[in-house]
Amino acid sequence: MRNTMLGFAVLALAACQSAPEAPQPALEPASNPAIIPPQAASVPAASSPGSAIMDQSVTITPPAKNVPTRYAAFSGIWAGRLEGQYEGKLAVQSVSSNGQVTVTYAWGNLGDNNPGEAAGAGRIAGTTLKLGRLPNGADISFNMLSDGTLAGTYTLAGQTYSGAFIRQ
Questions:
Q1: Selection from 24, 23, 25 nearest residue 131 by Cα
Q2: Which of 5-14, 58-67, 76-85, 117-126 has the lowest mean pLDDT?
Q3: For 37, phi and psi rounded to 5 degrees?
Q4: Annotated region Disordered: where (predicted)?
Q5: Sign of CA dihedral 87, 135, 156, 147
Q6: pTM for the full model?
Q7: What is the 3-state secondary structure (H, E, C) of 19-82?
């Protein structure tokens, strides 16, 4: 029985290490100078290793008056924990009247994935914001709840993590 359990653990680890390939990821690593310039000094001293760290140069542009309220509600910086332990931060930097958004997503240690950050685009449909695929192959979506929080879902290599995000 113990050997069977160890075998399953090895298979699970192997599955986590091989993310599905995406032909053209919609999100690019945030260290791309055209998107967000890297800043080594942006890591706060009080951060613990493995924390989700968002570049301090990330800015939020308030939605224009013609952006529907249901879309504008997503604007801002959000933080939460997936499965109660894995940190994530979402910056919805701009929101257009048709539901298109620009975003930055930062994650802490998650399974065997080290902390990172990616910037790109997404789209709001109804009460759901779906981000473009991350460079590591992860798919992320956020559902706006009636209490003004976001229910986040992060899927990578067949494993799904979920958790609540609140506006910062």
A1: 25
A2: 5-14
A3: -65, 135
A4: 22-48
A5: positive
A6: 0.71
A7: CCCCCCCCCEECCCCCCCCCCHHHCCCCCCCCCCCCCCCCCCCCCCCCCCHHHHCCCEEEEEEE
- CA–CA dist 53, 75 (Å, integer): 19
* 48 closest CA partner among 83, 78, 77, 87: 87
Phi, psi of 144, rounded to the nearest 5 degrees = -75, 120
Q: How far apart are CA 18 and CA 77, in angstroms?
A: 30
The 10s digit of each residue's pLDDT in 108-154 is: 887 777 888 999 999 999 999 999 999 889 999 999 999 999 999 99
Give the pair of three-digit tokens for residue 113.
């994935």
| Top-tier CATH class for 58-168 | mainly beta
Ordered by start, the domain boundaries in the chain are 58-168
User: How far apart, in whole angstroms, are the C-alpha atoms of residue 120 and residue 103?
Assistant: 5
Spell out the residues 6+ positions from residue 92 whose beta carbon is closer than 8 angstroms to its own: 60, 74, 75, 76, 77, 78, 101, 102, 103, 129
